Amino acid sequence: MRKKSLFYSLMLHGGILIILFLLQFILPAYHHSSVSKIMILASYAIGYNFLLGYTGLMSLGHAMFFSAGMYSMGLGIYYLDLSPMNGLIFSFLFSILVSMIFGSFALRTSGVSFLIVTLMFGQTFYLSILYFSEFTFGHDGFSLGKYLEPLFIFGKEYLFSDPGIRYNFALLLLLIYVLITTFIMLSPLGRILIAIRENESRTQLLGYNVFYYKFFALVVSGTFSGVAGAMHGLLFSYIGTTFAEIHHSISPLLWTLLGGVGTLMGPLLGTGIMYYLIDFISEITKNYLLIVGLVLILMIIWFPMGIMGTVRKKWFKWLP
Amino acid sequence: MLNWLNDNGPLLFLALLDGTVTAFVLALIALGLSLVFGVMRIVNVAHGELFMLGAVISWFAFDFTSDPLLGFFVALIFAPLIVGSISIFSERIVLRKINYHPESTIVATIGLLYVIQQLTLMYFGPEARPVDAPFYFRIQFPWFGYSGYKLIVAGMSAIFLLGVWFLMKLSKLGLYMRATQQDIEIAKTFGVATDKIYASVFALGGGLAAIAGVLIVPIRQADYLMGLDPLLLSFIVVIIGGLGSIRGTIVAAFIIGISDGIISVFYEPTLAKMLATSLVAMVLVFKPTGLFGEVQA
Fold first, then answer.
1. For chain B, what is the domain count?
2. How many beta-carbon pairs below 8 A join chains A and B?
């Protein structure tokens, strides 16, 4: 049974990723760039889901990680003349550091307090970007375009704003995240994380140090989000405070809830649906946030498991 | 020190005055949030939007009557009624459905926040609209004149705060609310209709926020985004004061309101907010009962 389900899920995810790879050759330019964006944002949502879906901790401060990654990459390139790749590595290390500091405080709380602590830390981070605006360019943000060195692949020169580069880097990031998540969740470590989600005190009674596992999950989640933020900054060459606002912490929550909490492909599906829904609605009205609100309320009342969660429960038990 | 006071004394006095006015209004908003949390054990993220609705209704009342004084009193009566009904309505159709589950409630009220905010944007528009003060006079201090209306705001807030306190301590409804807060199962056994208590607490909380909105709107204009800052500030107040404790909430409102006033005048509003948000996170982490909260079972 286990082997069979492993095979199915491998087929499914491999299939989705291959389809995403092939899509770039047939999509018209507009959707081509939309899908690139969706894949980056979905990577962010996968990071978010790692904490919410697999460990059961709901955060309202993930925009902090996203923007920490984004700003450390951007400011590193701007002030320290880093190359784009070193900028990514720098933001990777910085995200780990931020997640560790944040985790060692926030994980002392749980439930509603955890939500509010994450919200407050996120807000503090946002405000400090504004406060140090001489260094971070405050509300205006800044464009990275002219500071980025071009990439050399097989002797050819590419810019980061090149659509093909954008698409394939986004896909690569998504692929890495899916692989790491699958790998962790199939390992004994993943089982313990799920045990914590299902029953924290029992896991503790079994002799596991719950704090360390939660800490691990939070650092992975924060680092995923941070690197996704850095990638977003790199590929769309804009760094700004909108990515640190509360809205940007709520978005991955919405995407994950819609797609299915604790499912591997849920975040991708949720992000895709919401992106196109908002895209479609904003042609009619500017008040797309109204729809965001309605979707949140309807989801939480009637559809708490999300799309993939419901599909898993009703039809395909093997869905990861 | 004396020299510094000589130079900055008036400024400090102004900061203290402004801080006190802020503190009174903040106490009113935060008290609503605190009551809802205390009795129902839920966090209402849409609370700031109810405050904003109060301000917006006040503008409509002013626009409709085109008389500041009459409009003010119309708004003072109708804003809490309308917002209270909206609260009861959303409590019925949303919160009850999810059984007041703490985390789901937060998600649902975030949804509510967007819905209220965007509906206001659609019917009220994106621009900030001023409302004339119902009373206009200035109090002349040796260094500067101060708007008398601001002091009236502080006074009226104090009256409403006292009103809530009496309601909680002396009335039957207050008794039922406190009983529900202490132990909902036992309250039920004694025949308290806890679902009606829930609805009235939620309405009361919303009504208080709406009143605060009506009071504040002549000082700062009404716009559809004005709910976020008071929401965060009242979170901060409620948490520092101890979740669910009325006395703690009011004390904390003064600490936050006045220090916010002083830091904003002498440094920068952003710094004041930064310090407040990080302080609250630290309080939650290291002293979850709040600085003045009683330990609750």
1. 1
2. 111
Structural domain of B228: 26-238
pLDDT at B211: 92
Residue pLDDT, tens place only, A203-224: 888 878 888 888 988 999 999 9
Domain presence at residue B159: yes
Judged by a CB distance cut-off of 8 A, whether residue A284 touches chain B is no
* ipTM, interface predicted TM-score of the complex: 0.78
Q: What is the mean pLDDT of residues A69-88?
A: 84
How do residues B58-68 score in pLDDT, each as one tens digit?
A: 888 888 887 88
The beta-strand segments (E) located in B14-66 are none
Would you say residue B251 lies in a domain?
Answer: no
Interface of B with A (CB under 8 A): 43, 94, 97-98, 102-104, 106-108, 110-115, 117-119, 121-122, 228, 232, 235-236, 239, 268, 270-271, 273-274, 277-278, 280-282, 284-286, 288
Of B103, B118, B273, the CB nearest to A58: B103
Give the model confidence (pLDDT) of A37-51 as tens digits: 888 999 999 999 888
Residue B285 in domain: no
CA B50, CA B83: separation in Å to the nearest integer? 6
Residue B169 lies in a domain: yes
Residue B10 has pLDDT above 80, yes or no: no
Q: What is the pTM of this model?
A: 0.82
Instruction: Compute the distance between CA of residue B264 and CA of residue B271 in angstroms, rounded to an integer.
Output: 8
Q: To the nearest whole angstrom, how far is the Cα of B49 from the nearest Cα of chain A? A: 13
